[in-house]
Every structure is written in structure tokens, then in C-alpha cells.
Amino acid sequence: MCQGFVPFELSTIGGPWGRRLAPRRAWIDELPWDEALPSSPEARHVWTTTAFSEYASAAAFAEVAAAMLACGAPIDLVAAAGDFVVDEIVHTELAARVAAAFGGAVTLEVDLGKLVRPAVAADPLLAAAEIVVRTSCVGEALTVPILKLSRRLAGSSLVDAALAAVVADEASHAQLGWWFLDWADHRLDDAARVHLGRVAGAAVRAFAPLLAVSSCSPSGLGTLACDDYDPAFVAAAERSVARPLAARGIVVPAADLAAVGASPPGATAMSGG
Q1: Res 266: pLDDT
Q2: Neighbours of 242 (CB within 10 A)
Q3: Is this model's pTM higher than 0.90 or not?
């Protein structure tokens, strides 16, 4: 069992296992790797941390699949969650290769034994809902608009292509959460919804600094300047997390939204759809 901090490193074993993965990752080789890229320590850092984030997301979806099995969720939702593990592993390889294209990954010390925060609920359905809300309804839902913004400001054909591929997958990863909550709706009482609102609020607070990996560097090559990142995160927290949760009777505490600069649904007039 992995315990304590270790260097974040990736490896493959090959053989039948490499052949099994090959069709899913083949598109990576088709990206424009011959692009002349500028030297960018910020890009090396952001893509290394992205690789680890995607690795952690793979662990999260493995937990989602296990939790769904434990509560008797529809088997097609379970299968999707398991399949998303492969998506995230492929994204991990992609991000690591982009980091290498910018001059090599930076050193990260990580605790592989703490990739996923366990659920606290004893009831299998509520435990699954906790992990789903944290992973899909918050983490993936916040990631999609941030990645779309990063793509618009990429300034690189390689980065643009890499982000386009990741966004296409992450959008369905977020949708899984809403489908699960709709399936579980009649089994969630008021207390469960209050609990899930608190779970979502804590996750929003936790994801704010995790997604702000650029440390206010200029936007481009996968990084986002604070002036670009901050309003995008606030809008995503309101529109992509708080609103759809509220529509399902799950209210993110106002204090958690205020902590990241967002407002509860209906508290302010917002333009747009």
C-alpha cells in the first residue's frame, strides 16, 4: 500500500496490457508534436500538475464505480464510471507528454494513499452520492469551463488540440453526476440533500486553489492569469455547480460560495443563458 509522499512518476508494463490500452490512446500520437514551443517554466509546472490531477481523477472514478456497485446503481452508469478511469489515465499520459514538450516535467512529491477523500455516510446510496457530487457535479463540472477558457487562450496548436480532446471527455464525466442524482432522487430525503449540499460546498472551496495552478502567470500554453481565471471560476461555481444542484433540491451553503466569490442561485441577476 502506498503511504507517505513519493515522487510522481508514470510507467507502463506493455505486453497484452499495453495492447489493450493502445486503441484508447492512439490519438495522442496524432497531435502536432513537431510544433516549435517557447520555453515556459509555467507551462512545465501547469502540465505536470495537470498530469497528477488527471491521475487523481482516475482514482476518483474508480471509487465512483465501486460506490455505485455497492448501492445497486444502474449498470450502464457503473460501466461509464469504470470507463472514465481509462479516459483519465489517457489524459494523464497526454498531460505528461505536453509537459515533456515544454522541457520536461517538474518534480512533484505526492501521497498516492490519499488520492480520494472517502465518503463519511454509512448508507451506501448516500456514500455513492457524496463521491459522485464531489467528483462529477463539482470537480468535473468546474473543470470543463476552465479548460474551455484555457483552450481559447492557448496560443499553441498542440495545447489547443490537447485541451480540445480533454474537454470532450470531461463534459460527459460531469454529466454522469446529474444522471446519478436523477436516478437516486426518490431515495434522497431532506437530510441527505442538506448533507450533499455541504459536501458540494466543501468541494468548491477545495477545487478553487487546485484549478488555479498558474499562480497568476500570463494566460497561454495552458496557464491562466488571475484576471482570466477568477471570474471564470466564479461563473462556473454558480452556473455549472450551484444552479443544477439547486434544481435537484441540493443547496450549496451560501458561505461556501461566498468564500470563492460566487453567489447562491437567485441571489444576483446574471446575464447569459
Answers
A1: 64
A2: 30
A3: yes
